[in-house]
Write a structure and sequence with these properties.
With 346 residues, the chain is of the alpha/beta class. It contains 10 helices and 21 strands. The protein has an 8-stranded mixed beta sheet with strand order 8-9-11-12-13-14-15-16. It has a 3-stranded antiparallel beta sheet with strand order 1-6-5, with no helix packed on it. Strands 2-3-4 form a 3-stranded antiparallel beta sheet, with no helix packed on it. Strand 15, helix 9 and strand 16 form a beta-alpha-beta unit.
């Protein structure tokens, strides 16, 4: 088994080791694996089993992450390995995220890839960024840390698409490695996170706050799921929290479709997503988007000042750009984001 030393490990008596990366703070005896099944105690040393074991490697529009205000119109090299530190029964990408729990072995069978190879692939493809996505990139922390200086030297940014389940100290270090992050805020009830997802709401909220306050460009996604998190009260609490961090943070409310273990309910209705978008705007958020469905208004960026469309999208493609030097072409008000002054149609 290909393994590398894992970060944030505390070695204890009896060759036990405490993993300090995620909220469970797994205490592992020799031979034990963490709940994520990507880290194992090997004779008193915490090892990661997924370092550079890439199972996905594709060039995507940055809008697919979704990151709508981070170099709009650019391309991002998306990379992923197996594993997740949540057990969401509605996971839309469970083939990667839950792969290690579904298999009888921890062999992820991905191709071992060096950090320099990832950066070279990004530069050769013309990608502006490298996105760690599809599964849970927090579990790739060691790999991300090694990619970061090489990417910076090459002028390539790093982006994260994550559930935010990370301890405070690793999160602080992460803030110095990545330029942008889309964080999934899956619900606003602690019980939902603990009993359904196997995680911590507090951790995700702290991650959003810490990354935003550290200068990382943050966007938030909520997969709106019937009979789980689609009540007006819960959606309003989510929107109010985001607005309390920054009203410039874009909120993506995305359509659920039956998948993985939750096939007992239908897709999110158009009316529910529209209501969620209205709630976000009413709570003061400047940019609220609908996802996983075609919706001209819900996919477009409106100037918060004059309400004119400044970026119109169809799917993941920019169709019209009315942003000049990072400002609305109509009224000259600034449009929040990173790289807005360079956005262009693909």
């Amino acid at each position: 088994m290909y393994a590398m030393p894992a970060a944030f490990a505390t070695e204890l008596e009896g060759k036990r080791v405490r993993c300090g990366l995620c909220p469970p703070l797994c205490l592992l005896a020799p031979g034990d694996m963490g709940t994520c099944r990507t880290r194992r105690n090997e004779d008193g040393k915490l090892m990661t089993l997924i370092y550079g074991r890439l199972l996905a490697n594709a060039v995507d529009p940055i809008e697919k992450k979704p990151l709508f205000h981070f170099y709009p119109g650019s391309r991002s090299l998306s990379v992923a390995t197996a594993g997740c530190n949540l057990v969401c029964p509605f996971c839309q990408n469970y083939g990667l995220s839950q792969r290690l729990r579904c298999a009888d072995t921890v062999d992820v069978r991905g191709r071992v890839t060096a950090p320099a190879e990832v950066v070279e692939a990004a530069t050769q493809s013309g990608a502006k960024s490298i996105s760690f996505t599809y599964s849970e990139p927090i579990l790739q922390f060691e790999f991300v840390r090694d990619v970061a200086p090489l990417a910076q030297e090459a002028g390539v940014e790093l982006a994260f698409v994550s559930n935010g389940q990370i301890q405070k100290d690793p999160c602080k270090e992460l803030a110095g490695l990545v330029s942008a992050a889309n964080i999934d805020l899956k619900a606003f009830l602690s019980e939902s996170y603990k009993d359904v997802l196997g995680g911590s709401l507090k951790s995700t909220l702290r991650t959003i706050e810490l990354l935003a306050s550290s200068g990382v460009w943050v966007e938030v996604t909520t997969l709106v799921i019937p009979r789980f998190n689609d009540s007006e009260q819960e959606l309003r609490k989510i929107a109010a929290f985001i607005a309390g961090v920054s009203k410039d943070i874009p909120w993506h409310v995305s359509r659920f479709h039956p998948d993985y273990e939750w096939t007992d309910r239908g897709p999110t209705s158009w009316e529910t997503l529209q209501k969620a978008r209205e709630i976000g705007l009413a709570e003061g958020l400047k940019y609220v988007y609908t996802g996983n469905m075609l919706d001209a208004d819900g996919e477009s960026t409106f100037c918060p000042s004059c309400k004119e469309v400044v970026l119109s999208r169809r799917g993941f493609n920019l169709e019209r750009v009315a942003v000049v030097d990072g400002c609305c072409a109509h009224c000259k008000a600034p449009i929040a984001g990173v790289g807005m002054e360079t956005c262009q149609k693909k």
